[in-house]
Fold:
Amino acid sequence: MWLMIFQGTNSMKYEVACDMLNLSTLTERHLSICSTLFRQITRESHVLHYLLSAKRDAEVAGRLQSTKKCPTVRARTFRYKNSFIPYALFNFQ
Structure:
């Protein structure tokens, strides 16, 4: 509510108004929530764990340039690439 008042009266930028009110931006909150959800899914006890591909063997992973635990998904379309699982595998490992 305060943010709407700031933007309506002063025509202040969103990021500046968030800083003044000590709030995180929507983008920061979205990334934080996505990262938390992905960490939860990586646990084997999570209901959605089956959506992730199998983890790499530690010996094989040591010889690769990428240190990611799970291989990333190859996506042919931009829409699929930005869906949750491929995006999380690429950005949050």
Summary: The chain has a mean pLDDT of 78. The first helix runs from residue 2 to 10.
